[in-house]
Design brief:
The structure holds three protein chains of three kinds. Chain B is mainly α. Helix content of chain B is 74%, strand content 0%. Helices cover 25% and strands 34% of the residues of chain C. The two termini of chain C are 51 Å apart. The chains are: A mainly alpha, B mainly alpha, C alpha+beta.
């Protein structure tokens, strides 16, 4: 008679508690993230413009249009160039900074100062700092041109010249993300056991280059892949500086994907077409994550 | 020895470049218009104009309002994120329930979606609800942080099971365990999560730009862009003063709580 | 009167059975030790009783009331964990007070900060109770410290205090001493026994250390592979193990197991040596002899010494074939490896081919020794 319950209650109470505790976040996650992400995919298959009363299935029409859209291709090219320039620079400079800071040792206050100085741009408001950079790139009184002139380098109206505008934005991007790459590398460096360096010294190799080539670089592999991926994902999202400094110009030389998406989706109110561009943006981002996972998996197999 | 000095020199030069924008921003914010465009840059003004510039920053645009908006929005967002993420993280880390693995897989999936992707449907949805141009429009899309869920779940998994068993024997409900046991135990992780949440949402420009047009709702980045547009590059002094005011809260918080900030950012790499 | 009953408990983790039909009746006020090697299911049994795990089958009763469906907090049990499970961010005082807060104060009174405004009376009573428990355990000067600032022995006493403070129906202790060093463990052992005796509360004590179980418990349940092999008072367990498994498990060094047989007259023989007992069994059996259950004599079982260990209070002679003889140091004087002995068995138990104990009686007639 007492054995009528099949499933005992404490277990059921735990299951109930688990479901209830997870539920609010689960609902919000679908409402704000996953649901809209699915909706973007569906919307990109329609002809809907914001505010229109009717909506029709349009198949791949938007993607067709995109294929023939000169601005889209410029935008995609610019985005890829921006990522291609800023990611290697960020990663390389971040790595150098991390190794240099680690090598000066914990003594003295300078190490903490360096770390704070390099990381400060990550924690600061990019939009405000972008305006400072606009001033620094000013053709006549800007700090950049003054410094370049002082050491005999060519000067330019960096943000207004179609040949240099994208590179100027990439420089701001590097400045902003370098500190992030640096702290991630520092965490990676800390996990390298010091006895590897000691063993290397016993084996007769204690020069800085040998230490880097034989221990640091191979041991830093997974961190490197991760830093490249996270910097690339952040670079693909470049928008703030474009929106406030160049608005895609001059001559579309800084037109990037997110900017095009906002233009189409919100300025021109072409929601369906904007959704199609969003899908391209999403796929690019996902492919980076996929590449990262595959590279790390392969390393794990051989490692 | 020579190498050490050389390393320091390189690092100092790098630090100078990294800090240059901040120094210039402060410097310009102290100068009168005539000195801003001087052919030779000098760090300090010959004629101090700080009071005028900062006064202008607060009077030409409602900068104080922007700051208050920023504070209100970031606080609401973090409160909502913590209130939803912590219970789910606990459920994912420590409780057995049907669908747990699926729910976690969805969290990981959502982690891969950049925050700009849901923008168009969210905009349409908020429009249909008549919520565009409200605080809710800025806040709602960020009320969920899948990163927070993921981070806290990883941390909660390291809390000993015995501690939770002891709490159950002591009479705590599962809800109470989240707030009285898990929260204080995971305090460092929560501090890191809070820092990241504030960095992201204080600096966020993309979504507020889409969601609100009205001046009185603008967050600091939106407000300063608005200011910049309105002045069209003519009054650099007040603009840099405004930029300084907007950047200062996070920069100061960072300098005071470096450890939590950096560990928070480093945790974006937790596996 | 039973304090705690576990009846027919079964539990599997996935396909691995952990408990196979365990039944245990613990008397009210009794100190019962559950003894077994790691992985025998003893901790799982305790956690099922606590309500932290759910049994696949079986009944759990506390004071003759079914509690299977109740959550841990409703079972009125207190547990001391191996890791102590102290809340690291609370002071010692707050750790001990928490179970009382949860029981005596309303949710409104438990609110952080605000709750203090209208919980003065309840809080005062709790503070008094915490002080009353902390005093005898020597924790009074430590009440404002955090667990990280305490030694292992102090943490262990805080865990005890947290369990004792609300006078539960029973204490559950899961290897509470295994994180202490040997000297502290002996002290804490006596302390726990004294405390539980004084409070008269039913106690279930899980351990893998037979010394602990034998020294502390009124009765010991020996568990192996998810079954209770024997439940008996310590001395009975030692003298009359129910099976060869228990015999081998209890005692250090363990009981010697000698191949023996019972002849057609019922006489127990080891080799050619007839022992002074008869048994109703016939054929091949195993004779269990404690290391101190035999002694050198003029006649008896032949043996050869291979190794001698002088341990101070006693001397252990290892014999050819793996058996052990325990002697007082005086008796062992002059003994050397390689020496041949004759051993007379004074006390023994008999196990059948199924390794269960067989009855053994003293022989009526004078046995012909050797």
């Amino acid at each position: 008679m007492a054995d009528t319950r099949r499933q005992p209650s404490p277990r059921r109470a735990e299951a109930l508690a688990g479901t209830l505790l997870a539920l609010p976040a689960f609902i919000l996650m679908w409402l704000m993230l996953l649901g809209p992400a699915v909706a973007v995919g569906l919307l990109s298959l329609t002809d809907w413009n914001f505010g229109e009363p009717r909506i029709h299935f349009a198949g791949l029409d938007n993607y067709h249009e995109m294929w023939g859209d000169r601005v889209f291709w410029i935008s995609l090219r610019n985005t890829v160039v921006y990522v291609g320039v800023s990611v290697p620079a960020t990663v390389l400079l971040g790595l150098i900074a991390a190794i240099a800071i680690e090598s000066v040792g914990p003594k003295g206050g300078l190490r903490g100062f360096y770390r704070a100085a390099y990381f400060l741009p990550v924690a600061s408001t990019l939009l405000a700092m972008a305006l400072v950079w606009e001033f620094m790139f000013h053709p006549s009184v800007g700090f950049v041109n003054q410094a370049f002139r002082a050491v005999g380098l060519p000067t330019a109206d960096w943000l207004q010249n179609p040949d240099t505008a994208l590179m100027a934005l990439a420089a701001i991007g590097v400045w902003q993300n370098l500190g992030l790459a640096m702290v991630l590398f520092m965490a990676g460096l800390k996990s390298i056991p010091t006895d590897l360096y000691e063993a290397l010294a016993m084996d007769g190799a204690d020069g800085a280059w040998e230490r880097f080539r034989r221990v640091t670089w191979p041991m830093l592999g997974p961190a490197l892949v991760f830093v490249v991926a996270i910097t690339a994902i952040r670079s693909f999202q470049v928008f703030d500086t474009v929106q406030v400094l160049t608005e895609g110009g001059p001559l579309k030389s800084t037109e990037v994907l997110l900017f095009t998406m906002v233009q189409q989706g919100f300025t021109f109110l072409r929601s369906a077409y904007g959704a199609a561009i969003t899908m391209v943006f999403l796929l690019l981002t996902l492919s980076i994550t996929l590449a990262q996972t595959m590279i790390l998996d392969r390393r794990a197999h051989y490692g | 020895m020579v190498r050490r000095v050389l390393t320091h020199l390189v690092l100092l030069a790098g630090a100078a470049v990294m800090l240059a924008p901040f120094v210039i921003m402060l410097s310009i914010s102290l100068k009168p218009p005539g000195e801003v465009f001087a052919p030779q840059f000098s760090l300090l003004p010959t004629q101090w104009h700080a009071v005028e510039n900062y006064t202008a920053a607060f009077t030409k645009v409602p900068l104080a309002r922007f700051l208050a908006n920023g504070l209100f929005v970031t606080l609401c967002i973090f409160a909502a994120q913590a209130l939803t993420a912590l219970p789910m993280a606990y459920a994912l880390a420590k409780l057995r329930w049907r669908g747990r693995e699926t729910a976690f897989a969805m969290v990981v999936l959502a982690l891969l979606i950049p925050p700009q992707v849901p923008a168009i449907p969210l905009y349409i949805g908020l429009w249909q609800l008549g919520l565009l141009n409200t605080y809710a429009a800025i806040i709602l899309p960020s009320t969920i942080s899948v990163f927070g869920i993921f981070l806290m779940r990883q941390f909660f998994r390291t809390v000993p099971d015995d501690l939770i068993a002891a709490a159950r024997m002591d009479g705590l409900s599962e809800w109470a365990i989240v707030w009285r046991i898990m929260l204080p135990t995971a305090a460092p992780a929560i501090a890191a999560f809070a820092c990241l949440s504030f960095i992201w949402n204080w600096n966020e420009f993309f979504w507020p730009l889409i969601a609100v047009q009205e001046e009185h709702l603008m967050t600091p980045p939106l407000g300063i862009a608005f200011f910049s547009n309105a002045e069209a590059g003519t009054s650099f002094g007040p603009l840099m003063a405004a930029a300084t005011v907007v950047t200062a809260p996070l920069a100061l918080a960072f300098l005071l709580a470096q450890r939590a900030f950096i560990s928070g950012v480093t945790m974006t790499g937790v596996k | 009167m039973p304090g705690v009953s576990l009846r027919g408990i079964q539990k599997s983790f996935g396909a691995t059975p952990v408990l196979r039909d365990v039944t245990l009746e613990v008397l009210s006020g009794e100190f019962l030790a559950i003894l077994g090697a790691s992985g025998c299911g003893k901790s799982t049994l305790l956690r099922i009783l606590a309500g932290l795990e759910t049994a696949d089958a079986g009944e759990v009763l506390i004071d003759e009331r079914r509690v299977d469906a109740l959550p841990p907090k409703a079972r009125d049990l207190a547990m001391v964990f191996q890791s102590y499970a102290l809340y690291p961010y609370m002071t010692v005082g707050q750790n001990i007070a928490l179970p009382l807060e949860m029981r005596r104060m309303s949710p409104m009174q438990r609110l952080p900060l605000l709750g203090r405004l209208w919980s003065g009376g309840a809080r005062k009573a709790i503070t008094a109770d915490v002080a009353a428990v902390a005093g005898p355990l020597g924790l009074t000067p430590l009440l404002d410290r955090k667990p990280a600032q305490l030694s292992g022995g102090q943490r262990q006493r805080v865990a005890l205090a947290r369990a004792m403070v609300r006078s539960p129906a029973a204490f559950l202790m899961d290897e509470p001493l295994s994180n202490l060093d040997a000297r502290l463990r002996a002290e804490a052992r006596a302390e726990i026994v004294a405390l539980t005796r004084r409070l008269g509360v039913t106690t279930l004590y899980v351990t893998h250390d037979q010394g602990e179980a034998m020294a502390m418990a009124d009765r010991v349940a020996v568990m192996q592979a998810g079954r209770v092999l024997q439940l008996a008072p310590p001395q009975e367990l030692y003298d009359e193990p129910a099976s060869l498994e228990v015999a081998r498990f209890i005692g250090s060094p363990p009981m010697n197991a000698l191949p023996a047989h019972v002849d057609e007259d019922g006489a127990v023989m080891v080799g050619e040596v007839r022992l002074p007992w008869i048994s109703p069994a016939r054929g091949a059996v195993t004779l269990g002899v404690r290391p101190e259950g035999w002694a050198p004599a003029g006649q008896g079982i032949p043996a050869m010494v291979t190794l001698i260990e002088h341990l101070g209070a006693e001397t252990l002679c290892h014999l050819e074939g793996g058996a052990v003889l325990r002697l007082a140091p005086d008796m062992a004087r002059g003994m050397v490896p390689g020496q041949a002995l004759r051993l007379a068995v004074q006390k023994a138990v008999l196990f059948g081919p199924d390794e269960q104990r067989l009855p053994l009686q003293a022989a009526q007639r004078e046995p012909a020794l050797g």
